[in-house]
Amino acid sequence: MPHEFHLLIDGTERAGSTGEAGDVLDPATGEKIGQVAYASVQDLREAVATTARGLRDWAATPPWERGRVLKRAADILRSDLEAAALTITREQGKPLAQARTEVERSADFLEWGGEQARRISDRLIPGRTRGSRVEIRSLPIGVVAAFTPWNFPMALAAKKFAGALGAGCSIICKPSQETPGPVLVMARALLEAGVTPAALAVVFGHANQVSDHLVAAREVTKLTFTGSIPIGKRLAAAAGAEVKSVTMELGGHAPVIICSDVDPEWAADMLADAKFSNAGQICLSPSRFFVEASIQERFTTRFVERAKARRVGAGTDPASEMGPLANARRLAAVEELVEDARSRGASVLVGGKRVGQRGFFYAPTVITDVPDDAEILHQEPFGPIAPILPFNDEAAMLERANRPEFGLAAYVVTHDIGRQRRLIDALEYGVVGVNGPVTHYPEAALGGWKESGIGTEGGIEILEPYQRTKQVSLR
């Protein structure tokens, strides 16, 4: 029987007031596995009013206690890891091993937010006259509207819940309606741990209707979004019109620079694993492979071997190394990118086609001879496509690597320390991985440059996007 995914408002899960709902599909089969309730304008008004009320109670909760609650929520998530991971796999498609890692990382973020909550402190500055002083207080910014995507449906929401709740804010989260279960699982853990029920809400529905209402609501003072650059720009513009604070992690198109001093087979093995993780549906995913010409043939041969050997199948199958794409839109988009490159003269060495007729599977794909005008070099691929681009001239290669508006992640593969530093300094990206993939652990701040984001998430700064200061001058 299909599962019913409800709205969560004031600690209660319920259908939307109009009864409208959308289908939730299993990406491995394309079949319906549930229905998700859509919020009406009335439901959204209730969520805003409730979280505004919940803000007062949660903000008044001592930071030490907020820390205890968040750390307990992390323990609850870990205690039911297998069930939570299965929810992610059934709705998003990734192999269970990767889903387990996502649950663990989500718990880590909640725990980290709790630890940082216990470090909130005010500052006291001596005044310039006798008997005077200045206090700088750190206070929660208010009601947070959070918008989270489907590729890491729990972990990317966990960053926002950890920062907002740790700072003392209340939060309304609008996850993707294609993957509603993981955020609801995490929200239940937070409520069980002791978060004020009115301090969090989870709503689903038509994206524009939900975002327009939440951004315009007077009670909402902060917007945080993870997703594509075009949608991020639209939301940032709307928030700017209301003079509301925003934090955004937007799209990426990560260049990878593989230098001739490394073992090309080792580099290909490491980068193929990174490229095909989560079927390439990662903003940090390596996606443009600049390979020094003298090792290109060996690197490409090994990368193709690894792509051919990748076992593609349902995420619930323990033998699967790569699951399906998350939805039919991604499948169509990946097919279009490969066909565009092929039509412009690119060679498809492996893959380049759908796998089977059931579900949204696409073969790990490697392409070469890719012209500069191919869309794959200008659009975030968000799929299992690896374009390999040889280079001899380092300066010309760096110009190509930095050319797009993307500035999230980049990679350097070389053992030459001097060259590492030169390339790291030249790359216009907020994150640079050296000789290995980038993973966002909670203890490290992460954010994009250029059009790939505003602000950072994680690190010792995890609470800062959700705080505002008050200066008190005392005499």
Helix/strand layout:
Layout: E1 3-5, E2 7-9, E3 12-14, E4 21-26, E5 31-37, H1 41-60, H2 63-79, H3 81-92, H4 96-117, E6 123-126, E7 133-140, E8 143-147, H5 155-167, E9 170-174, H6 181-193, E10 200-202, H7 207-216, E11 220-226, H8 229-241, E12 245-249, E13 254-258, H9 264-276, E14 286-292, H10 293-309, H11 328-343, E15 347-350, E16 365-368, E17 385-391, H12 394-402, E18 409-413, H13 417-426, E19 431-434, E20 453-454, E21 467-474
Parallel strand pairs: 1-5, 8-9, 8-11, 9-10, 11-12, 13-14, 13-18, 14-17, 16-17, 18-19
Antiparallel strand pairs: 2-3, 2-10, 4-5, 6-7, 7-21, 12-20, 15-16
Helix pairs in contact: 1-7, 2-4, 2-5, 2-6, 3-4, 4-5, 9-10
| CATH topology-level name of the largest domain | Aldehyde Dehydrogenase, Chain A, domain 1
CATH architecture of the largest domain: 3-Layer(aba) Sandwich
Q: Mean of residue pLDDT? A: 97
CATH level-four homologous superfamily name of the largest domain: Aldehyde Dehydrogenase, Chain A, domain 1
Q: Compute the number of structural domains.
A: 2
Q: For the largest sheet, list the strands in their spatial order.
A: 3-2-10-9-8-11-12-20
Describe the structure.
The chain is of the alpha/beta class and 475 residues long. Helices cover 39% and strands 22% of the residues. The protein has helices at 41-60, 63-79, 81-92, 96-117, 155-167, 181-193, 207-216, 229-241, 264-276, 293-309, 328-343, 394-402, 417-426; strands spanning 3-5, 7-9, 12-14, 21-26, 31-37, 123-126, 133-140, 143-147, 170-174, 200-202, 220-226, 245-249, 254-258, 286-292, 347-350, 365-368, 385-391, 409-413, 431-434, 453-454, 467-474. Strands 3-2-10-9-8-11-12-20 form an 8-stranded mixed β-sheet, with helices on both faces. The protein has a 7-stranded mixed β-sheet with strand order 15-16-17-14-13-18-19, sandwiched between helices. It has a 3-stranded mixed β-sheet with strand order 1-5-4, with helices on one face. Helix 1 (41-60) packs across helix 7 (207-216), helix 2 (63-79) runs antiparallel to helix 4 (96-117) and helix 2 crosses helix 6. The longest helix has 22 residues, at 96-117. The N and C termini lie far apart (68 Å). The model has no long low-confidence stretch (mean pLDDT 97).
